Structures are given as C-alpha cells and as structure tokens.
Amino acid sequence: MITINDNCANLVKLFEGFYPKAYHDSIDPVGVDTIGYGTIQYPPNYLNGKKVEVGDPLITMEQALEFLKWEMSQQIQYVDPLLRDDLTPNQYDAIISFAYNEGVGRFKGSTLRIKVNTDPNDPSIRDEFMKWVYADGQKQGGLLRRRRAEADLYFTK
Q1: pLDDT one-digit tens code per residue, 46-104
Q2: Any idea what the Cα angle at residue 51 is, between residues 151 and 8, rounded to 5°?
Q3: Which residue among the candidates 16, 66, 71, 128 is catalytic per the annotation?
Q4: Which one of 18, 78, 107, 148 is most buried, counting C-beta atoms within 10 A?
C-alpha cells in the first residue's frame, strides 16, 4: 500500500471546497449529504460515525481536515486491494481523489481501473478519467476541471 501525499488531499480540498454546514448538492443522490471537504460519513469518534445529514452541527475547518483524513483512509482501505502494487505516488493519489468523488463501487467497475491495472502508463487512461464528467446526463464544468486535474496528476512524473 502506498501512502497518499499532500497532492491528493490538496486536490480533494480544492474541488470539494470547505463547508462548515451540512448540505445536499443537487447532483448528489437523495440521501447523500456532505459537510467539510465532501465528507459523507463522520469518523467513529464524531456523532457515532453516522452519515452526514442536513441539520447536523456546524464544524470547524480543523474538524473538516480531520474528517477528510479519516474518509480518505477509508477510500485507501477499499481501493488499494483493487490496484496493482507498482503505481507511482501521483498515480495512486489521482485514483484516490477519483474514488473519493465517485465512490469505490464506481471505480471498481470502471474501465479506468482495468486500464490502470493492465498498463499504468497507457495514455488512454486520460480519456477514461474524462468520461466521468457528467451528472444527470449533463457535462459539468466542475467535474471536467476535476478530472483534468486528476489526469494531469496521474501522468505527472
């Protein structure tokens, strides 16, 4: 298992943004609310690890960072066994950012994962990132920028 570096956390923070109040994003499925930097479930030591819900108490930026680290550690736990062991730190970070945003289930069933595991240097991997820019059938500018940034990080030596 590779340890994620600041590139991953910074990418997630940039695209998720900090929200001290729980909210429901219109492109998220019903029942998925977020707080902080895209946290959808609290760590076990906060509100008993329950799912985030609109109306939950406000949080500080420090708490949001703590929640982000915890939730990213959860992503790593589930994503790491799905990946080959010879990825670079930047490749790994880009995949963790993608899974943080799209979910492990979507990553697990993706052509992106298949291509990464077949040949992590395949240039068409960039195209696979770029397929994930739609919400409700509409291309989203924020997702387009995020996927481009993830793909750029993935191919950074």
Answers
A1: 999 999 999 999 999 999 999 999 999 999 999 999 999 999 999 999 999 999 999 99
A2: 20
A3: 16
A4: 107
Residue of 157, 137, 131, 136 lying closest to 148 (CA atoms): 131
Q: At what angle do helices 89-102 and 61-79 cross, to 10 degrees?
A: 110
> Can you tell me which residue has the tokens 């820019």?
133
- What's 46's DSSP letter? S
Active-site residue 62, yes or no?
no
Please give the tally of structural domains in the chain. Answer: 1
Domain membership of residue 85 (yes or no) is: yes
Q: State yes or no: pLDDT of 28 exceeds 90.
A: no
Please indicate, yes or no, if residue 1 is contained in any of the structural domains.
no
- Tokens representing 73? 């550690």
